[in-house]
Design brief:
The chain has a single domain, classed as Spore Coat Polysaccharide Biosynthesis Protein SpsA, Chain A, CATH 3.90.550.10. With 267 residues, it is α/β, with parallel strands linked by helices. Helices cover 38% and strands 16% of the residues. The strands form 2 sheets. Strands 3-2-1-4-7-5-8 form a 7-stranded mixed β-sheet, with helices on both faces. Strands 6-9 form a two-stranded parallel ribbon. The longest helix is centred in the middle third of the chain and has 18 residues.
Length: 267
C-alpha cells in the first residue's frame, strides 16, 4: 500500500529501529556502465550518507577501483544490462547474508541522502520502498522532459490497474528491499536491461504478499555536472523507450497468466 505525504526522518530514527537495536548493515548496489570517474564520487557520497557496504556492479568502461575504499566496498564484473546487474546484486546480497539491499545508479543521478529514508521505511516494515521523483513532496531541481513524464504516467496507470498499486514513480532506479522480497525475486527476474524496476514492482505487486511504498526523491534532470546526467536519448528514441517498458508489462502479465482485457478494457 502506497503512503504519500511522508516527511523525512531524523538521523536517530534512520539509524535505530523502533526496538532500539542497531539496524544490520545494508548493501548498496551501484550498477555502472561506462561512467568514467563518476562511480568513485557516487560511492564516496554513499559512504558519507550512511553506514553500509557497497557493491559496485561493473559492466565495463568505469575508471573505478574498490581499493580506494578498502573496508566496505566490493567491485564485481557483471554482464551488460541494468536488469542483469540488479539480479546479480540481489543474488550476491542473499549469498552474503544481507537482510536489506538498496540501489543507487552509478551516474550520479540519485541523492544518496535519500537512501537513509528508504532504509528507514523498509526497516519499519515495508518490503519494497521506491524513491519517487514524482512524489507530491519531491523537490524539482529541473523538470523532467515531457516524454519522461508521459511515460511514467502511462505505466503507473497500468501498474495501478493490473496490480492495485497507486505509485507515483514506477521506473525509479532508486529503491530498497528486504530479504523476503529478495528471495522471492531472485529466481523470477528476467529483464536483462532497462525496465528492471517495473518488473520488480509488478512481480511483487501481483503476488499479493508484499508491502510496497515510496518516499520523495528530488527530480533532477539538468546538466552534465554533479546535479544530474540523464542523457537525452540513453534508451534510443522515444518510441523505443516506450516499447521497452511495454514489453516488460506484457511479459510479466503473460508469465502470471493474467488476462489484461477485463483489467484494462472492461472497467
Amino acid at each position: 500500500m502506497t503512503q504519500l505525504g511522508m516527511t523525512s526522518l531524523s538521523a536517530a530514527d534512520r539509524d535505530t529501529p523502533a526496538g532500539g537495536t542497531p539496524a544490520p548493515r545494508a548493501l548498496v548496489l551501484v550498477p555502472a556502465l561506462a561512467e568514467s570517474g563518476r562511480v568513485s564520487g557516487v560511492v564516496g557520497s554513499v559512504l558519507d550518507a550512511l553506514d553500509a557496504d557497497v557493491l559496485v556492479l561493473d559492466a565495463g568502461g568505469n575508471a573505478f577501483s574498490a581499493s580506494a575504499f578498502p573496508d566496505r566496498v566490493t567491485s564485481v564484473g557483471v554482464p551488460r544490462g541494468v536488469g542483469s546487474a540488479v539480479r546479480h546484486g540481489i543474488e550476491y546480497a542473499l549469498a552474503h547474508g544481507y537482510q536489506v539491499v538498496t540501489r543507487i545508479d552509478g551516474d550520479g543521478q540519485h541523492d544518496p541522502v535519500v537512501l537513509q529514508d528508504l532504509l528507514a521505511r523498509q526497516r519499519a516494515g515495508a518490503d519494497l520502498v521506491l524513491g519517487s521523483r514524482y512524489h507530491p513532496q519531491s523537490h524539482v531541481v529541473a523538470a523532467p522532459p515531457t516524454d519522461r513524464i508521459a511515460l511514467n504516467v502511462m505505466f503507473r496507470s497500468l501498474v495501478q490497474q493490473v496490480c492495485g498499486l497507486a505509485m507515483t514513480d514506477v521506473i525509479s532506479g532508486c529503491w530498497a528491499m528486504g530479504r523476503e522480497a529478495m528471495e522471492f525475486l531472485a529466481p523470477r527476474i528476467q529483464v536483462r536491461d532497462y525496465g528492471s524496476t517495473l518488473e520488480i514492482l509488478m512481480l511483487l505487486g501481483l503476488s499479493g504478499r508484499f508491502s510496497i511504498t515510496e518516499v520523495p526523491h528530488p527530480a533532477i534532470y539538468a546538466g552534465l555536472g554533479v546535479e544530474q546526467r540523464y542523457g537525452a536519448d540513453r534508451l534510443g528514441d522515444r518510441c523505443a523507450r516506450s516499447a521497452v517498458y511495454l514489453e516488460v508489462v506484457t511479459d510479466v502479465l503473460d508469465r502470471h497468466g493474467v488476462n489484461a482485457w477485463p483489467l484494462l478494457v472492461q472497467r
